[in-house]
Amino acid sequence: MRKSKTREDEDRVDKFLAAIKDDEKRNDCLNLLALMKELTGEPPTMWGKDKVGFGKFHYRGKTSEGDWFHVGFSPRKQELTLYLHCELEKQSALLEKLGKHKVGKSCLYIKKLEDAHLPTLKNLIKKAYKSPAIAGATIDQSN
User: Fold this and answer.
1) Cβ distance 118 to 90 under 8 Å?
2) Domain ranges (residues) in the chain
């Protein structure tokens, strides 16, 4: 079984966010940082080169195993990617209220934070933090 290549690194979050050249994207990320810190009570941690995560759990899937974060985000070129492992396909009632967005398997894509209805986004983040779900993975939260 292969191990995940993405590993946590506690020291680089502030430096990473400060290096974002686009002012609006950097401000959105700083707001997401504050929001996720508040909702999770966890410190932010860098995962790989471009993901900021909160919390940690161990997963074991059919072909891989490793550690991952409960919730997080990454400032991609086209949009903000929010990693929310709350089975987004089952959150249609909340997603209808969210505003402009796209959805992947466990990712929510938003162009600008102002496009999202903040109370709805908070609900999605809380759901994801309380109950991480990765399809096909056995989740071991004892770490």
Assistant:
1) no
2) 2-137
Quickly tell me which residue has 């992947």 as its tokens: 104
Q: Name residue 12's amino acid.
A: R
Decide if domain 2-137 falls under CATH 3.40.50.
no
pLDDT in tens, 56-113: 888 777 888 888 889 999 999 899 999 987 666 777 778 788 889 998 877 899 999 9
Give the E-state strand segments of 76-119 in sequence order: 80-84, 102-103, 107-110
In angstroms, the CA 16 to CA 66 distance is: 23
Q: Taking the CB of residue 122, how many other CB atoms lie within 10 A of it?
A: 15
What tokens does 52 get?
Answer: 């900021």
